[in-house]
Amino acid sequence: MTDQMTLEAAVADAHLAVREYDEALAWLDRACQAPMAPLSAEVWVTDPSFTHVLLVKHRVRGWVPPGGKVETDETPRQAAVRELREETGLRGELLPLPAAVAVRSYRADWSATLGLSYAAVLDREASLCGESGQPPRWFDLDKEWESMFPADRDRIRAHVRLLAEGRPIATR
C-alpha cells in the first residue's frame, strides 16, 4: 500500500505532468478512495542534441525507460532518480515538470497502477553500467525499438520534440 507522503507527492506531480495518458487523473481520483497499489516512476532520458533516448533492456518488456516501483517513504521523483542510477549508473537532474502521467499494468496478472514519467537531458558520452541482465543503451529517436509498450515511442518522441524546440512547457 502507498504511504500518505508518497501519495501526496504523486498526486501533485500527476497534476503538473506535461501530458496525461489513459485518463490517468480520473483513474487517480478513483484510486485515492481505497488502498492504492504501488506507483511507478521512470525517466525519459534524451541527449543534448535531442536525437537519442536512453533505454534499458528488460527481460520481458523489451526496451523501456529506466524506472520501477516507488518505495515506501519515497516520492515518485526520488524513485525516478534512484532507478536511473541503479539501471544505468547515471546521476542526473530531472527537469522540473514531470513529462507524463499514465496508467498501465506491467503484467497481465497485476492490477493497473499510476506511472509518472520524468525527463532528463544527459550526455551520451557518459559511461553506462546497468543491472545484471538489463543493459542500458542509447537509441536513435527516429528508429524503432522493441517494447511491450509501443505507444511509449511516440510519447517519448513528442516530449523530446517539445524539449528540442525550446518552448516553455506548460501543463496540459
Descriptive notes:
- The chain is an alpha+beta fold and 172 residues long.
- It is built from four helices and eight strands, in the order αβαββββαβββα.
- The longest helix is centred in the last third of the chain and has 15 residues, at 151-165.
- The chain is globular, with a radius of gyration of 15 Å.
- The model has no long low-confidence stretch (mean pLDDT 90).
End-to-end CA span: 29 Å
* Helical percentage: 25-40%
> Rg from C-alpha positions?
15 Å
Beta content comes to: 15-25%
Number of strands: 8
Unreliable spans: none
Structural class: alpha+beta
**Total number of helical segments?**
4
Overall, the morphology is: globular
Mean of residue pLDDT values: 90
Q: Give the SSE order as H and E letters.
A: HEHEEEEHEEEH
Sheet of most strands: 8 strands, mixed
Feature tags:
172 residues, alpha+beta, 8 strands, eight-stranded mixed sheet, 28% helix, globular
Brief synopsis:
The protein has 172 residues and is an alpha+beta fold.
Task: Present the secondary structure layout.
Blueprint: H1 4-16, E1 19-20, H2 24-31, E2 40-46, E3 52-58, E4 62-64, E5 67-69, H3 76-88, E6 100-104, E7 113-121, E8 136-140, H4 151-165
Parallel strand pairs: 1-6, 2-7
Antiparallel strand pairs: 2-3, 2-5, 3-4, 3-8, 6-7
